[in-house]
From TrEMBL:
Main location: membrane
Positions of the G-protein coupled receptors family 1 profile domain: 40-288
Any single Gene Ontology cellular-component annotation: plasma membrane
Species name: Sarcophilus harrisii
Identification of the protein by name: G-protein coupled receptors family 1 profile domain-containing protein
Gene name in the database record: LOC100919772
Compartment(s) where it occurs, according to its Swiss-Prot or TrEMBL record: Cell membrane
Function: Odorant receptor.
SUPFAM superfamilies (UniProt xref): Family A G protein-coupled receptor-like (SSF81321)
Listed Pfam families: 7tm_4
Top-level taxonomic group: Eukaryota
Keywords: Cell membrane, G-protein coupled receptor, Membrane, Olfaction, Receptor, Sensory transduction, Transducer, Transmembrane, Transmembrane helix
Length: 309
């Protein structure tokens, strides 16, 4: 529930640049990157849906991850680019709350999906005979829905706690989108309970990370015992993109939330924000399509059917 005693009714977001020409240039550049990321993820969704050979749990989760990436990148970049083009820094308190809720929700779902994908690879490689039983379609759907619904609770909790605070000192957010750390910096309320909730949530996410690490230690120990080198290569080719995606997402989110407080706008703030909100969703489809022969073959088949070649 929002704090009705809050005297602030709107926030001011950070501009891409003080120079109007550079502001428009950055806005267009970020929108081009967004468009490329959007098209790449849409392509993954289309390929894994159309090609029946990709109707497996691994590609089911890759498709879901691409859908989440589309939502994740769409929450921040298009509004920021449009605001920059029309030279408008204002965002309402309600709009900021909605943006934070969606951003936290998508980030949570992405991270938990990456954890589920680690389990999928573990079962497929370490227990192949049990794979059809453990990772059956019903179980895959249940795990995905669990990620979505617990994400709603997670995002709702943190959004509600954030907007119970008062923001009477300043309404300037030193990011080009709303996020929780930036709002905590400008709050004039006691934020101890907010920090505790973030810390507890961080511990849960660390638990997911430990699960991923342990899963891949077991996976690699199993793969290295494969007698055929080609089987090792195929196994690694399905695991390496996932490891890179997890690393990118973890590094970007951790650095975003653990960086020291900033009291002024800087190029560094923009770079960190861009890396956190744009780079992982932009690179995910590239990593999966370049490292996965089945997806590349699926892309070629779809292109041929549509007479692109």
């Amino acid at each position: 529930m929002f704090n009705l005693n809050n005297s602030i009714t709107e926030f001011l977001l950070m501009e891409f640049s003080d120079n109007r020409e550079l502001q428009i240039l950055y806005s267009l550049l970020f929108f081009l990157i967004y468009s490329a990321g959007l098209m790449g993820n849409l392509l993954i969704v289309i390929i894994t849906t159309i090609d029946r050979r990709l109707n497996t749990p691994m590609y089911f989760f890759i498709r879901n991850l691409s859908i989440v990436d589309i939502c994740f990148i769409s929450v921040t970049v298009p509004p920021a680019s449009i605001n920059s083009l029309v030279n408008n820094r204002v965002i309402s308190v309600t709009g900021c709350a909605i943006q934070i809720f969606l951003l936290v929700w998508m980030a949570y779902v992405e991270y938990t999906l990456l954890t589920v994908m680690a389990r999928d690879r573990y079962v497929a490689i370490c227990h192949p005979l049990l794979y059809p039983v453990i990772m059956n379609p019903r179980a895959c759907m249940q795990m995905t829905l669990t990620c979505l619904f617990t994400g709603v609770l997670y995002a709702g909790l943190h959004t509600g706690l954030t907007f119970q605070l008062s923001f009477c000192q300043s309404n300037v957010i030193h990011e080009f989108f709303c996020n929780i750390p930036s709002l905590l910096k400008i709050s004039c309320s006691e934020i101890f309970f907010n920090l505790i909730s973030l810390f507890v949530s961080a511990l849960a996410l660390v638990g997911c990370f430990v699960f991923i690490v342990v899963s891949y230690i077991r996976i690699f120990s199993t793969v290295l015992r494969f007698p055929v080198k080609e089987d090792q290569r195929k196994a690694f080719s399905t695991c390496i993109p996932h490891i890179i995606v997890v690393s990118l997402f973890l590094i970007s989110t951790s650095y975003m939330h653990l960086q020291p407080p900033s009291d002024s706008e800087s190029v560094k703030d923009i770079i960190i924000s861009v890396f956190y909100s744009i780079v992982p969703p932009f690179l995910n489809p590239i990593l999966y399509s370049l490292r996965n022969e089945q997806i590349k073959e699926g892309i070629r088949l779809v292109m041929k059917k549509k007479n692109f070649f």
